[in-house]
Amino acid sequence: MTDDPTPPPSPETTLRYRGELVRLAAIDPERDAEVFAEWFDDPMATRLAGFRPVWPMNRASAQERLEEWVKQAPGGIHFAVRTIDDDRLVGGIGIMGISPADGNGELGLSIYRQDDWGLGYGREAIVLTLRYAFNELNLHRVWLTTTGFNERALKLYEKLGFRHEGRGREHILLDGTRWDLVYMGMLRDEFEG
């Protein structure tokens, strides 16, 4: 027996799929395809999520894309982001390119409808996903990219503790203007969630 007062890790203390606003859920390609296809009707939202070129998507192709994401595990883990109040699909989040040998993976987030932006859904989904990445997947580092013009995302990531790690200068061309790609990362010991 040890005198260490620290309780052993347990799912109750280190892993939660549910927050106050949203929960992380398994993607259901058949159920989620309609909302996912509608999201592609908003070029701004899909561009900010990194989908380029932007194109309209029908329900069948949306379902196919979601099925591909489900099949990526364990190299990539994707979650649906659903509201606690009414179980509405508001977005998607995942860790892609998981490297168990190096202990890192890339975070990707999309809150689909602009009406849902700024309500705290993205922030809470990121915290839940980081908790999963560091405590369940045992990752050491989670990184992400965003465009230099996406000030809302940059402020959120900084507030959550992500640090700037570099820039891909003039990496993205949108509407005739070149934009930097911003690289940010967080180490396990920097996570405060």
Topology:
Layout: H1 11-14, E1 22-26, H2 29-39, H3 43-48, H4 59-71, E2 77-83, E3 89-99, E4 104-111, H5 121-136, E5 141-147, H6 151-160, E6 163-174, E7 177-187
Parallel strand pairs: 4-5
Antiparallel strand pairs: 1-2, 2-3, 3-4, 5-7, 6-7
Helix pairs in contact: 2-4
Summarize this structure briefly.
With 193 residues, the chain is α+β, with helices and mostly antiparallel strands.
Give structural notes.
- The protein is 31% helix and 32% strand.
- The chain is an alpha+beta fold and 193 residues long.
- Strands 1-2-3-4-5-7-6 form a seven-stranded mixed sheet, with helices on both faces.
- Strand 3 (89-99) and strand 4 (104-111) form a beta hairpin.
- Helix 2 crosses helix 4 (59-71).
Task: Please give a handful of descriptors for the protein shown.
single chain; alpha+beta; 7-stranded mixed sheet; 6 helices; 7 strands
